[in-house]
């Protein structure tokens, strides 16, 4: 195996383990009651801006370039990039807000609406689908370039702790044990790793996987995270969203990408 390829695999493994560990950390914080809602909101707001910028400035334009330069697994028309983006967007909508209509990021306080275990498991399924494509997104980016893989990893990492926190909170609100709450966050981490592994195995499909993952990223940022930011009073959280966008732009300028 060539050393550059081995190095990329090692980077992917490291990123996957860190992302999965952040899911577990989020679950651990809620399971042990060592958490601060305020700090969680900071992650959500900053992550929302960075994810939006990553999807619109990096992932979708790169998907168009890939579609133009390579033979797609399904379609050759560059315009089909937006079909895949839309498909990724609505896949997450179906699993997170159709099968689990009460789902939202953050601490679950409506215990009466989560009284049945199936509500928490439906939310877990939605998050598993979403985190699986987090892994697909990171791996797709790395298959294109180290830069793209790196910025997608940062975008994913910023909402990993809130993901683990959310799913553990949902489990506790539905009457599950702390062990089940922590286990659910570990499942999210495992789904991320599974998405990365599958993408490296199916690397020839990167021209289709990247725009699909862009749609997932766009949904999580715009439909999951931004509404949580909008719940907060004052302008502090909104400013952090802009800071997330500015961070990506600054990184691009710094590295001349």
Can you walk through the features of this model?
The protein has 257 residues and is an all-alpha fold. The chain has one domain. Helices cover 79% and strands 0% of the residues. It has 9 helices and no strands. It has helices spanning 3-31, 37-69, 80-97, 117-144, 146-158, 160-173, 178-201, 206-230, 236-255. The mean pLDDT is 85.
Q: Assign an overall shape.
A: globular
Low-pLDDT segments, ≥5 res? none
Number of DSSP E strands:
0
- Secondary structure: helix percent: over 70%
Query: What fraction of residues sit in β-strands?
Result: under 5%
Mean pLDDT: 85
Q: Secondary-structure element order, as H and E?
A: HHHHHHHHH
How many domain regions?
A: 1
Helical stretch count?
9
Instruction: Tell me the span between the first and last alpha carbons.
Output: 28 Å
Radius of gyration computed on alpha carbons: 18 Å
- Name the structural class: mainly alpha
Major sheet: none
Keywords:
257 residues, mainly alpha, 9 helices, 0% strand, globular
What's the arrangement of secondary structure elements?
Blueprint: H1 3-31, H2 37-69, H3 80-97, H4 117-144, H5 146-158, H6 160-173, H7 178-201, H8 206-230, H9 236-255
Helix pairs in contact: 1-4, 1-5, 1-6, 1-7, 2-5, 2-8, 2-9, 3-4, 3-8, 4-5, 4-6, 4-7, 4-8, 6-7
Summarize the model shown.
The protein has 257 residues and is an all-alpha fold. It contains 9 helices and no strands.
């Amino acid at each position: 195996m060539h050393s550059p390829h081995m190095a990329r695999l090692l980077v992917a493994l490291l990123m996957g383990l860190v992302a999965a560990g952040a899911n577990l950390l989020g679950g651990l914080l809620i399971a042990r009651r060592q958490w601060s809602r305020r700090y969680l909101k900071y992650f959500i707001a900053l992550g929302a801006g960075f994810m939006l910028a990553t999807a619109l400035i990096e992932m979708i334009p790169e998907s168009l370039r890939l579609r133009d330069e390579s033979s797609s697994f399904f379609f050759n028309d560059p315009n089909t990039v937006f079909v895949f983006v839309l498909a990724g967007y609505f896949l997450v909508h179906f699993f997170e807000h159709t099968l689990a209509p009460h789902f939202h990021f953050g601490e679950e306080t409506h215990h009466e609406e989560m009284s049945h275990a199936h509500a928490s498991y439906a939310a877990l399924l939605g998050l598993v689908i979403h985190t699986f494509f987090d892994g697909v997104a990171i791996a797709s980016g790395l298959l294109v370039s180290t830069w793209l893989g790196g910025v997608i990893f940062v975008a994913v990492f910023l909402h990993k702790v809130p993901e683990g926190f959310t799913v553990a909170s949902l489990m506790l609100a539905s009457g599950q044990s702390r062990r089940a709450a922590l286990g659910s966050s570990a499942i999210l981490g495992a789904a991320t790793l599974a998405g990365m592994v599958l993408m490296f195995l199916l690397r020839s499909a990167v021209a289709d996987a990247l725009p699909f993952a862009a749609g997932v990223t766009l949904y999580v940022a715009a439909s999951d995270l931004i509404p949580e930011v909008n719940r907060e009073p004052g302008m502090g959280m909104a400013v952090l969203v802009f800071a997330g966008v500015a961070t990506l732009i600054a990184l691009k300028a710094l590295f001349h990408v």
